[in-house]
Design goal:
Layout: E1 2-8, E2 13-20, E3 25-29, H1 36-48, E4 52-57, H2 63-66, H3 69-75, E5 81-83, H4 88-97, E6 113-114, E7 120-123, E8 126-132, E9 141-145, E10 150-154, E11 157-158, E12 161-162, H5 172-183, E13 191-194, E14 200-201, H6 202-208
Parallel strand pairs: 3-4, 4-5, 5-6, 10-13
Antiparallel strand pairs: 1-2, 2-3, 7-8, 8-9, 9-10, 11-12, 13-14
Length: about 210
């Protein structure tokens, strides 16, 4: 599996393409593409590399991670869109604050399926394990690919930081417990691709993250 990242919207959100190199099938995780230029950048990469979009996945449903959901489902119709059901209230709240946040053109999209702890998500020859990691939001999940020791981590663990917990559905103790049980149990060499900022590793965060001391 190959991971390709894009940084989109005013929140500098990381959108990820997960590519099964054998089949050229891919999953789009947390599309934050809002402007036509950002949407075109994602589309052009997919078309230029002859990829087939098989899944739309959200780690969680805060506005910066779902701005491009409608575009993805319009550009690649019938793509399954999966979200943990506990984050549906978070998703449904987005239209209430999109315009004040400067995203008046936001268009909502509704999931077609659910994510659950321990679920296997497949595209091509790639299988991702869903790990339930609440704390930043009530239904947050991460996606773990064991063969490449890779985690698509959303807003749980950042390089020397952690996700904020002052938004609705957030809880600091719950977030720390999620990190301890679902991320720090992975091998030190595991790469974490977060929702914002640079990639990091479990081993580095175990040693250098002040929130985990």
């Amino acid at each position: 599996m190959k991971v390709v990242g894009f940084t989109f919207n005013a929140f500098s959100e990381n959108t990820y393409l997960l590519i099964d190199e054998a089949s050229r099938e891919c999953a789009i995780v947390d599309p934050g593409c809002y402007s036509p230029a950002e949407q075109q950048q994602l589309r052009q990469y997919i078309e230029a590399n002859k990829l087939t979009v098989k899944l739309l996945l959200n780690t969680h449903a805060h506005i910066d991670h779902v701005l491009g959901n409608y575009f993805v489902l319009s550009a690649w119709p019938d793509t399954p869109y999966l979200l943990h059901p506990l984050d549906l209230p978070t998703l449904h709240a987005v239209p209430l604050y999109a315009t004040p946040y400067g995203f008046a053109a936001y268009q909502p999209a509704e999931p077609t399926g659910e994510l659950a702890a321990g679920q296997a998500v497949r595209f091509g020859h790639t299988e991702l394990e869903v790990r339930f990691t609440p704390g930043h939001s009530a239904g947050h999940v991460v996606f773990y690919h064991a063969p490449t020791a890779t985690v698509i981590g959303g807003d749980v663990l950042f390089r020397q930081s952690i996700g904020r917990t002052d938004l609705p559905g957030g809880d600091h103790a719950t977030l720390l417990r999620s990190i301890e049980t679902e991320l720090l149990t992975l091998p030190d060499a595991t790469t974490v691709y977060p929702g914002h900022g640079p990639a990091t590793t479990i081993g580095f965060e175990r040693q250098a993250n002040p929130f985990l001391a």
